[in-house]
Automatic annotation (TrEMBL):
One of its GO terms (molecular function) is hydrolase activity. It holds the Pfam family Beta-lactamase. Keywords: Hydrolase, Membrane, Signal, Transmembrane, Transmembrane helix. Gene3D superfamilies: DD-peptidase/beta-lactamase superfamily. It comes from the Bacteria. InterPro entries: AmpC-like (IPR050491), Beta-lactam-related (IPR001466), Beta-lactam/transpept-like (IPR012338). SUPFAM superfamilies: beta-lactamase/transpeptidase-like. This is Serine hydrolase. The chain crosses the membrane at residues 368-389, 410-431, 443-467. Residues 1-25 form the signal peptide. The keyword Transferase does not apply. Residues 36-339 form the Beta-lactamase-related domain.
Amino acid sequence: MKKMRLVTLALGAGLVLAPAVPASASTAELESAAIDAYLTRAWESTALPGLSAVVTHQGKVVHAAGYGRDAAGKPVTEDTPMRVASLSKSFTAMAVMTLVEDGKLALDEPVAERLPDFRMADPRAKEITVRQLLDQTSGISDSTVDLRAAESAPSLAGYVAALGDGKLAADPGTRWTYSNANYETAARLVEVAGGRRFGDYLKERVFEPLGMSASAVGDPAVRPADGFNSLFGVWVPRSELRDFSYGGGSGSVVTNARDMGKWLITQSGQGKQLVGAESLAAMHAPSKVHDYGMGWGRQSVNGADLLVHAGNLFTYTAVEAIDPRTGYGFAVMTNSAGLYDDTYDVLTGLVAMSQGKTPEVPGGDRQLVEVILGLVALAAAGLGVLGVRRAGRWAARWAGRPGRRVGLRMIPMLLPAVLLALYPATISFLMNGRTVTWEQLTYHAAPLTITLVVAAVAGLVTVLTRLRRWRSVGSTR
């Protein structure tokens, strides 16, 4: 299934910004109406609870709007606060780059020299550079650090300290591995080099200069409503699983469509600039071992090579993109998370419109996936009930046969239980070693988790009932 959330990661980076293609004012006005019509249809067809989006071009916001409702029943608008998850990495990279231009950091200096509390059990960690944190080539991997301990820390300093027992999965600079630990460490580096809390630094050096007055990190005054999870087609309000109050650098930014327009404009090399052109190009450029740059990736969308980053939390989803060739910028945000990520499909339609093409209206994939899972769960439950009710008849038919043959007969019914036992580890493997917990699997993956649990329980109960009846029949003979 395409774009399944459990195995989706925004990857790639690296185009030097090109001059934007001029557009007339009348064209921009026409586009705004067309974009609104498209986004309205997209919101309706995807059945998302809430959706906000912004399109920019030639240093201006072409269209910014919201659709649907939040968990409190309020209409979603261009001013509705949204969690943008891993889009936060592009903001963290910008914060680091401002310190580089101020002479307080250097991209190719060891992190440990500027951050004394950055220590790991692996001596190679002393070689990790600032650049390698940002382009995810540090060697740090979710599978080689205690990520659960780190994420439970009350501060960025505590997060970095929790990495102390960890090791590296590869020599720094030799392999790309996506890990939030890279950007949490980078955020702590901003705190130390910038002399203030990470969220305060972003506010003073990034948000305020750009006029992003509704954006924040770790600010209790800027708090979005609860998001939603889809449960077999029904949107259920849920509190976000992870606490972002300490203000981390990997996924803590809260913003809205209006502010994201200003962010896309500056990232397109237009409007107010926070760093020089060379620094901006460096953030967009790929590393030596992977297409991922510094908080941005390169990805082909509708045939166009874009700078892209997606963000997936447990109750919110977002994606941002820039077309260096045309100067268009796009951001799509939702207050929901399901097995299927609709934001990318909505983005694809917006990109098509910027190319003068008729966009395909997204939607239906999430609903189809969940309907299939629901039917599988119902079928498994029905087969389980049928297997229990007919256990006596089955036992009589197999009475007197060797236990080995009976056991082999049970194996197919035990497969769902085996799959359930391996479930977190399997998803972790599919996500390149990212940490996956049972609690996490009760959020956007809830339909799949429930289906596996139902199938496993049905199989186990059927096996146990049949074995009990089989032994009972054998003892009476």
